[in-house]
Specification:
- This protein has 29 helices and 12 strands.
- The relative contact order is 0.09.
- The chain is of the alpha/beta class.
- The N and C termini lie far apart (98 Å).
- It is 62% helix and 9% strand.
- It folds into 4 domains: 218 residues, Growth Hormone, Chain: A; 230 residues, Growth Hormone, Chain: A; 67 residues, Spermidine Synthase, Chain: A, domain 2 (Roll); 268 residues, Vaccinia Virus protein VP39 (Rossmann fold), CATH 3.40.50.150.
- Homodimer or homotetramer.
- It catalyses: S-adenosyl 3-(methylsulfanyl)propylamine + putrescine = S-methyl-5'-thioadenosine + spermidine + H(+).
- It is a multi-pass membrane protein.
């Protein structure tokens, strides 16, 4: 047997650290790009989101196991790492092509299997898992390979895992920030993917260059064989420098796999629940989600780096693991006590930012850190500790890391699915967090009981952990004021614009305490969003994630909802089949049903909106009970891409485009899908708000719609500041006064119009604002909102934050009058 040699430092350590930092940055950037592409394919429904997360994490878990096995056999793990980076880079470059090829496949799958049910979800997951398998395996395999390379030379397993994990995660933080705040908004998806691929190629090139220059890429010293340690550990993991690797293992080592899988479950639950809670005061903007994810990953990176220090100074990783699990549970509970103050904190932040988007987003990141940073710090430290516990007495470090990583990933998959589908709808975000914290506390107590050291001390420590958990449960559990937690960003912003910061804080103080201000009628945390119904006098409001999406009674949205449903039917008097995107209060669907159509299909993303429908029966008159009415709970883009049904009228009335994901329903590609689903002579109707929208943004909407529907008419609902675009792809859209008058002669139509003060065709024409082709031309050259550039999703939030002047395109003018005369028949 060859004589073992002392450990030697890995050559070019600094360069390898830079490479792993860069691959973390590129990997997270590609993950964001791929997630966006997949949202176009699968939609933003809970089924689509869960499928993406499960498939991606599943591939990473398989990659970790594969990487661990390869690490135990490879003589040059760094060279293999370079090849995997090349593979990831190639897959990144091919992303746009893969997306284009996948669109017809997923559309046909939806139509062939029916678009719902367990079989459809399973088949879709398997296809997506197979598509992501190569790049995610390559990504997941990198950490075990690098750990193997470092520990074969240096032998300090725990510190190597901690440092590498921290460095890679810090790179991921930069990837999130760069992709979310700079690259995608300025370059679009495919160029961002190309930039990430270039980083992967650079990493591979740097390592291969070392090989060409004769740099040592082998993880083993001369005379070693893969899978065999080169000598005694220099760290403390075996208890002492001279102790053999086969030192006695703690009892918890046999349980660390399921325990760390449970920890992964809790970690994903925390991420989902925190994001759901913070999306209400932050407004659900794409930048806010990037800030939340960046803070989450930053905490993990710092915790992993701290674990490197701990592992050099302890011979009891199991006891540390248990203690940190308890501290994690306590920090989660501590963070939940901040929730009640979120509206006040966000109101102060709005006042301090004074219209500066960068100031606002930086403040939101700091606010997120108050809740998230400490728990994620402990989460980051737990991974190296779990790996150290599992690796004791085992020969190959890379395989140990791969197994632990895979276990954590398996738990994360379960967390992503069960949190959205079961826990949050059943328990709510707060109680889901508390249940996960209790699970972490239980793991911590068990680890203390089964860890290293004298039995009596372990029992006392475990008992103290149980006592602390009970004390926190009894005396530190937070409360949840549903009404206060429904104070969304836009409501806070509007109150500030109306009366300043002082007024906002006074309103917040009265929320939930004064029935005169408003009364909570309904509150439900659904699978994708939180739905609230509030009543103020005779005004009822439907809120989704704290933003008002519909009002009835004396509410400002009644005219817009009626007009959006009525106007396209006035333009298409012979329509038989209508599709309505977005249910809201149901008023628009009711307006459609006042006409003699055969069928009205309403597509709604969040099922809890339908649960709130009874509170709007007086205004909406129960449209879903009409035998002509059909409801589908699905993402509208996914449905229209996949259905074989055609329509005479399609009405797109989603939420505001500054909300992440909603911009998907304002892209050129979405309009092309809508056009394909329109019958000859059909009419497409697009709603968009004009308040808090810059002229540049509105011009982009006009240009984008007109690329697919070149002819159309615009109507403006002044009471609510909403614009209705009626457009057609294949003919002139004239205003047929006789047909409109005939529609008004129907009692149901006339009655529906009358409740918003419209009693004649002339009243309707009073809302006219011009021809779409002229207005799009006057908007001049500029961007078109596409799937690739996501222009509207990134620009609309900036418009919302920055005060906007009234758009001159919406004013009555001589050009509008000329358009009206030319369009009347």
């Amino acid at each position: 047997m060859p004589k073992r040699r002392a450990k030697q430092p890995v050559r070019h350590t600094a360069l390898l650290y830079v490479c792993f930092f860069a691959s973390g940055m590129a990997g997270l950037t590609l993950e964001i790009v791929w997630s966006k592409y997949l949202s176009y394919l699968l939609g933003n429904s809970i089924y689509g989101v869960s499928t993406v997360v499960a498939a991606f994490l599943g591939g990473l878990g398989v990659g970790a196991v594969v990487g661990g096995r390869l690490a135990s056999r490879a003589r040059e793990p760094l060279l293999l790492y370079a090849r995997l980076e090349l593979l990831v880079g190639v897959m990144g470059l091919l992303s746009p092509l893969a997306y284009l090829l996948a669109r017809p496949l997923f559309a046909s799958l939806y139509g062939a299997i029916g678009g719902s049910g367990a079989l459809f979800l399973l088949v879709r997951f398997l296809i997506l898992f197979a598509a992501l398998l190569l790049p995610t395996i390559a990504m997941g395999a990198t950490l075990p390979l690098l750990v193997s390379a470092f520990t074969r030379r240096e032998g300090d397993f725990g510190s190597s895992v901690s440092r590498l994990y921290a460095i890679n995660t810090i790179g991921a933080v930069l990837g999130v920030a760069a992709a979310g705040f700079a690259l995608i908004p300025s370059l679009g998806l495919w160029k961002t993917a190309a930039a990430a691929a270039a980083i992967d190629f650079a990493v591979a090139g740097a390592i291969l260059a070392l090989k060409l220059r004769g740099g040592a890429l082998r993880g083993a010293a001369a005379g070693e064989t893969p899978g065999t340690p080169a000598g005694p550990s220099s760290g403390s993991l075996a208890g002492a420098k001279s102790a053999p690797r086969e030192a006695a293992r703690s009892a918890i080592a046999g349980l660390i796999i399921p325990l760390f899988a449970l920890s992964g479950f809790c970690a994903l639950l925390y991420e989902v629940a925190w994001t759901r809670i913070l999306s209400v005061p932050f407004g659900g903007m794409v930048y806010s989600f990037s800030a939340i994810l960046a803070v989450y990953l930053f905490g993990i990176a710092v915790g992993a780096a701290f674990a490197a220090v701990l592992l050099k100074r302890t011979s009891s990783p199991a006891l540390l693991f248990g203690l940190l699990q308890l501290l994690l549970a306590g920090s989660v509970v501590l963070g939940t006590r901040v929730f009640a103050s979120l509206p006040d904190m966000q109101a102060t932040l709005i006042a301090q930012s004074r219209g500066s988007a960068s100031h606002l987003f930086a403040g939101e990141a700091l606010l997120t850190a108050r809740i998230v940073l400490l728990p994620t710090f402990f989460l980051g430290a737990l991974f190296p500790l779990a790996a150290a516990i599992y690796q004791r007495g085992r020969l190959e470090p890379g395989a140990s890391v791969g197994t632990i990583y895979a276990a954590n990933t398996l738990g994360s998959i379960a967390g992503s699915v069960l949190t959205g589908f079961v826990l949050i709808p059943a328990l709510g975000s707060l109680h889901s967090l508390l249940v996960a914290a209790l699970a972490n506390a239980a793991v911590g107590c068990l680890a203390l009981l089964l860890g290293e050291g004298i039995v009596l001390k372990r029992v006392i420590a475990a008992f103290a952990g149980v006592a602390a958990t009970i004390a926190v449960s009894l005396f530190a559990a937070p409360t949840w004021d549903a009404e206060r937690m429904s104070l969304g960003f836009v409501r806070l912003l509007r109150a500030y614009e109306f009366g300043g910061e002082g007024l906002v804080h006074r309103i917040i103080e009265r929320i939930g305490r004064s029935k005169e201000l408003e009364r909570l009628l309904f509150y439900k945390e659904g699978r994708l969003a939180t739905v609230t119904v509030l009543e103020t006098g005779d005004r009822r409001a439907l809120l989704i994630n704290g933003k008002t999406d519909a009002t009835t009674g004396s509410g400002e949205d009644m005219a817009q909802q009626v007009m959006v449903g009525q106007m396209p039917l006035l333009m298409a008097p012979n329509a038989e089949s209508v599709c309505v995107v977005g249910y809201g209060s149901g008023v628009t669907t009711h307006a459609v049903l006042t006409h003699p159509i055969r069928s009205a299909l309403t597509i709604e993303l969040e099922g809890s909106v339908i649960e709130a429908a009874p509170f709007f029966e007086t205004a909406a008159m129960r449209p879903l009970s009409d035998p002509r009415s059909k409801l589908v709970i699905e993402d509208a883009g996914t449905y229209l891409r996949s259905t074989r049904e055609d329509f005479d009228v399609i009405i797109s009335e989603p939420s505001n485009p500054w909300i992440a994901g909603v911009g998907n329903l304002f892209t050129k590609e979405f309009y092309e899908e809508a056009r394909r689903r329109l019958r000859p002579g059909g009419v497409f109707c697009q709603w968009i708000q004009t308040y808090s929208v810059s002229p540049a943004t509105l011009s982009t909407v006009f240009r984008t719609v007109s690329t697919t529907f070149p002819k159309g008419q615009l109507f403006y609902v002044e009471s609510s500041g909403d614009l209705i675009i009626l457009a057609v792809p294949d003919r002139e859209l004239s205003l047929d006064r006789a047909a409109m008058t005939a529609a008004f002669s129907r009692p149901a139509v006339a009655q529906d119009f009358a409740r918003i003060g419209v009693r004649s065709v002339q009243d309707v024409l009073g809302a006219y604002r011009g021809r779409l082709d002229r207005i799009a031309l006057s908007a001049g050259p500029g961007p078109v909102n596409t799937d690739d550039n996501s222009w509207l999703e990134h620009r609309a939030p900036l418009d919302l934050i920055t005060p906007q002047e009234e758009n001159p395109l919406l004013a009555w003018s001589s050009q509008v009058e000329a358009d009206l005369k030319a369009s009347l028949r």
